[in-house]
Automatic annotation (TrEMBL):
Coiled coil: none annotated. This is D19L3 mannosyltransferase. It comes from Loxia leucoptera (White-winged crossbill). Keywords: Glycosyltransferase, Membrane, Transferase, Transmembrane, Transmembrane helix. One of its GO terms (molecular function) is mannosyltransferase activity.
Length: 717
């Protein structure tokens, strides 16, 4: 197993005033008045200081995570094979395509090798650019080849520094989003500080560098920042067009770099749909955002050689359904409360039915089954019947796909983030309910409503309303699936800092307490924000310094020994079978052909993986040999950590999942379902080590250490 061990070594921020509110200099007829000269100068100074702060904190975050990565692995000192092994599981698979492109004789040859790949899945040629989101590796490898940096920077450093650099973009985008929501860059400063001090729960880039989400989330943050700006009122047409372009580019890049983009954007589309139905967002802008999501995804579909999983995505079906339903129901936002509620119920049912019909039709036409494992997993996870499906149970038993652990909230609370977040969430939820009820009861269209806004104490800007629903929906996703918490916790930093530094929030609180004055609001807002920043700084700065001074080194001698043996003792054309996670490393470190790998979004691969994993089930040696040879296997790698697994409880060990899927009773004490039967054969991975004739006639052990056992398959005539 890959571990890290202790390294052996020898000898007051002054808060700027709020930027002018977007309503401050607007005439009743909607025309914008010019700022006074002094106000414009102060605004320019504030933007300059805030911009410098955003860039500085972004770069500091980038350096911070890069230093943590170096200190944890001693990356600059370890061998190349150790560096590559440190890219665990699917990370190693993605990085292998970057390495493949770098080592190709030419860019054209490298691209040809990806489009006609026969080493990732044995006895099968696949198009990597269609199946996987690796355009970022392709772009980066081409950039490395054409830039004059080969003599100064190794390919691996160019790769990881790019990912760490994207963290700077991520933090800057979070900073800007919070700034736009609150009107003061102090809010952005607080959001960035919370992101850094809650690093354990906001990012994992320093130890899973090539993971798709580490490429995608910075672009998602940029998209959210652009949407936040787009939803502001009184934008000039040129500003609106430019912002829409930024939203499109960010959406496209986000979609291009992560295979789960469609599910994240579906949640975003649901947020827009809810707010549009409640008359809290401008319908025209929401329509543009629906169109941008569809067009961005379709462009990615074209680049991925018309990937059917994209065409069959729920996002496209949902967005198209909303646009169709809106055309059918033209008077959706007219009438009294009961009338509008009735129309909304019908609208929601119409959109839901259309979405399911369109999606079913597309999947039927395309014969699409690539994403069925996700829906099986969701069905089992939310209690819609137990399942023996191997793929669904494989996800259900992984901690990353379980519920968000409760200790997450204690960590977030230690920085005051969760307390502030809960407080702001409660206030804005109450405000949103009041505004939504008022909108539905108004019996007037949206233009007329804007003219009446000043009559009400409680208001909610469109961008704040979007941020509220966004954080609620992604919070639900994070609570149900721990792996998705990084989408929520980063926005939590934005949302909490916005609430703490927002004039509107403090104005609402003070008006409820009958203590409101403009001067008191400003004093409280800045005082509490600065006190919070000082508290975070004094409490967590020593811990960050200690963390940066802790030196460790990569240590995984068994895997290093295995990879070196494969490179030196097996032919380049050899085909290896084993666990998905290990084989990704085999491809990266040795370039050998694999039978299966961790990129699970393909039905044939999932069926193949289940068959390969019979090496850990109770099957006869003849059966296992036949399965492995059907995939052209020359060598099979058995891992003691899987064969004798203790990490998971009974029922969730890989061998248990295989036993249940095969209809066999599980090992160990405990209950079994009544229809499960004892197997006629012992467990293959245990019995093969006894060198019995029935096994040695098919398998010959050629390598062994404390962790791995490699067997060569006999080629019978």
């Amino acid at each position: 197993m890959t571990t890290v061990r202790q390294r052996r070594v020898g000898k007051g921020t002054e808060a700027a005033e709020d930027q002018p509110s977007e309503e401050t200099n607007v005439k009743p007829d909607g025309k914008i008045l010019p700022d006074p000269p002094g106000g414009r100068l102060w605004s320019i100074l504030s933007v300059t200081v805030g911009g410098i702060g955003a860039i500085s904190l972004g770069l500091l975050t980038s350096v911070y995570v890069a230093t943590l990565h170096e200190n944890d692995l001693w990356f600059s000192n370890i061998k190349e094979v150790e560096r590559e092994i440190s890219f665990r599981t699917e990370c190693g698979l993605y990085y292998s395509y970057y390495k493949q492109m770098i080592q190709a004789a030419s860019i054209q040859q490298g691209l040809h090798g990806l489009v006609y790949d026969n080493k990732t899945e044995s006895v099968r040629t696949i198009n990597i650019l269609e199946r996987m989101n690796v355009y970022q590796e392709v772009f980066l490898s081409i950039l490395y080849r054409i830039l004059p940096i080969q003599q100064y920077l190794e390919p691996v450093y160019f790769y990881i520094y790019t990912l760490f650099g994207l963290q700077a973009v991520y933090v800057i985008a979070l900073y800007v989003t919070s700034w736009l929501l609150s009107g003061t860059w102090l809010s952005g400063l607080l959001a960035a500080c919370w992101y850094i001090t809650n690093r354990v729960d906001t990012t994992r880039v320093e130890f899973t560098i090539p993971l798709r989400e580490n490429w995608a989330l910075p672009f998602f943050a940029v998209q959210i920042a652009a949407i936040t700006y787009l939803l502001r009122t009184h934008l000039q047409p040129a500003q609106e067009k430019l912002t829409l372009m930024v939203v499109f580019i960010a959406t496209f890049l986000f979609s291009l770099t992560w295979q789960f983009n469609q599910f994240m954007m579906l949640i975003q589309a649901l947020a827009l749909f809810i707010l549009d139905c409640l008359d809290m967002l401008p319908t025209a802008k929401v329509t543009w955002l629906y169109i941008i999501q569809i067009s961005g995804l379709l462009l990615v579909c074209v680049l991925q050689f018309f990937n059917s999983m994209i065409l069959g995505s729920l996002l496209i079906s949902f967005n198209v359904s909303v646009l169709i339903a809106r055309t059918i129901q033209k008077n959706l936002k007219k009438g009294g409360l009961l009338n509008r509620l009735g129309k909304l119920v019908l609208h929601v049912l119409l959109v839901l039915c259309l979405t399911l019909l369109i999606n079913k039709f597309i999947k039927k036409i395309l014969n699409l089954e690539s994403d069925e494992h996700i829906f099986k997993f969701l069905k089992a996870k939310f209690g819609f019947g137990a399942t023996r499906d191997f793929d669904a149970n494989l996800y259900l038993c992984e901690e990353a796909f379980g519920l968000l652990p409760l200790n997450t909230f204690s960590r977030l609370s230690s920085t005051l983030l969760f307390y502030v977040y809960g407080f702001v969430l409660f206030l804005l939820t109450v405000a949103a309910v009041i505004v939504a009820f008022r909108n539905l009861s108004s019996g007037s269209n949206q233009v007329h409503l804007k003219g009446k806004m000043e009559e009400y104490t409680v208001t909610l800007k469109p961008e704040a309303a979007y941020s509220l629903v966004h954080t609620v929906l992604f919070g639900c996703l994070a609570l149900s699936t721990m792996r998705m918490k990084y989408l929520w916790t980063s926005h939590m930093c934005v949302f909490a800092s916005f609430g703490l530094c927002s004039t509107e929030v403090w104005k609402l609180i003070l008006k409820c307490l009958h203590l409101y004055t403009s001067q008191r609001t400003q004093v409280i807002k800045y005082s509490i924000s600065i006190i919070t920043l000082l508290y975070i700084s004094f409490k967590f700065w020593p811990g960050i310094m200690d963390e940066l001074s802790e030196l460790r080194e990569f240590y995984d001698p068994d895997t290093v020994e295995l990879m070196n043996w494969i490179k030196s003792s097996t032919p380049n054309t050899a085909v290896f079978a084993g666990s998905m996670q290990l084989l990704a490393g085999v491809k990266l470190c040795t370039g050998r052909t694999l039978t299966n790998h961790p990129h699970y979004e393909d039905k044939n691969l999932r069926e193949r993986t289940k068959q390969i994993y019979q090496i850990y089930a109770k099957r006869s040696p003849g059966d296992v040999y036949g399965i492995l040879r059907s995939f052209g296997t020359d060598y099979v790698i058995l891992e003691d950590s899987i064969c004798y697994e203790r990490r998971h409880s009974r029922g969730c060990r890989l061998r248990d999942l295989l036993d249940v899927a095969n209809g066999h009773i599980m090992d160990g004490l405990g209950e079994n379902e009544p229809d499960l039967k004892p197997s006629l054969y012992p467990r293959f991975c245990e019995e093969i080590k006894k060198n019995l004739p029935s096994y040695t006639m098919h398998f010959t052990r050629v390598f062994q250490n404390k962790t791995f056992h490699v067997y060569k398959l006999t080629k019978h005539k």
